[in-house]
C-alpha cells in the first residue's frame, strides 16, 4: 500500500492524530496565559545564556511580516489561518488509512495555526515569549504554536525527501 508516510499503522484513520492538534493548542494557550500573567511586556527574564522569556506581541505574521501596518493585517491573517486550517483538515481526512508520519506533521501544523488564530481573533496579535539569542543577535520571539508549525513543516520536508529517495530507488 502506498501510504504517503514513512510509517504505517494498522489501517486507522489519519484523523486519529487530531489529538496532537488539540494538545498543541492547549499547551500553546496555557503557556501564553502564563506568559501574560508572569512576564512584563518587553522585559526579558533570563533562563539560559542563550534563552530569555520575553513577552512580546506580534500583529503581523512570521518574523513580524506586516506588523507595522494599520491593523488590516489582523483580519487578513485571521482569514488565511482559518483557510489553511480547513485545508489541513481536508488534506488530513483524505490521506490513506494507516498513514502516520504525514498526518502527525499536518496535525502539528494545524494545532499551531489554530493556536495563533485564537490569539488573532481574541487579541488582534499573537503572543510570543520564547526568545533565543547569541550575544546581541536575537532570533524573532516565538511561542509553542510556532514551534508546532515548525516541527510539522520539518516533518513534511523529511517526508518529501523520503518520497524522492523511494522514487529514485524504484527507477
Overview of this protein structure:
With 171 residues, this protein is of the alpha+beta class. The protein has four helices and four strands. The protein has helices at residues 18-38, 72-94, 101-123, 144-170, and strands at 45-48, 51-58, 126-134, 137-138. The protein has a four-stranded antiparallel beta sheet with strand order 1-2-3-4. Helix 3 packs antiparallel against helix 4 (144-170). The longest helix has 27 residues, at 144-170. The chain is globular and about 55 Å long.
Question: Which labels suit this protein?
Answer:
4 helices; globular; 4-stranded antiparallel sheet; disordered N terminus; 4 strands; alpha+beta; 171 residues
Outline of this structure?
By secondary structure, the chain is of the alpha+beta class. Helix content is 55%, strand content 13%. A four-stranded antiparallel sheet has the order 1-2-3-4.
Distance between the termini: 18 Å
Mean pLDDT: 90
Order of helices and strands: HEEHHEEH
Radius of gyration: 18 Å
Topology of this structure?
Blueprint: H1 18-38, E1 45-48, E2 51-58, H2 72-94, H3 101-123, E3 126-134, E4 137-138, H4 144-170
Antiparallel strand pairs: 1-2, 2-3, 3-4
Helix pairs in contact: 1-3, 2-3, 3-4
Amino acid at each position: 500500500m502506498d501510504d504517503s508516510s514513512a510509517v504505517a499503522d494498522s489501517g486507522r484513520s489519519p484523523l486519529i492524530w487530531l489529538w496532537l492538534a488539540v494538545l498543541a493548542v492547549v499547551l500553546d494557550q496555557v503557556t501564553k496565559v502564563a506568559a501574560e500573567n508572569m512576564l512584563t511586556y518587553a522585559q526579558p527574564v533570563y533562563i539560559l545564556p542563550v534563552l530569555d522569556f520575553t513577552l512580546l506581541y506580534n500583529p503581523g505574521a512570521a518574523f513580524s511580516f506586516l506588523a507595522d501596518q494599520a491593523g488590516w493585517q489582523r483580519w487578513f491573517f485571521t482569514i488565511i489561518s482559518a483557510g489553511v486550517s480547513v485545508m489541513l483538515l481536508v488534506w488530513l481526512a483524505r490521506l490513506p488509512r494507516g498513514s502516520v508520519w504525514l498526518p502527525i506533521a499536518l496535525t502539528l501544523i494545524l494545532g499551531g495555526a489554530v493556536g495563533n488564530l485564537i490569539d488573532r481573533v481574541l487579541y488582534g496579535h499573537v503572543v510570543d515569549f520564547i526568545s533565543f539569542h547569541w550575544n546581541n543577535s536575537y532570533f524573532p520571539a516565538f511561542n509553542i504554536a510556532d514551534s508546532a508549525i515548525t516541527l510539522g513543516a520539518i516533518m513534511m520536508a523529511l517526508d518529501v525527501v523520503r518520497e524522492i529517495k523511494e522514487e529514485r530507488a524504484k527507477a
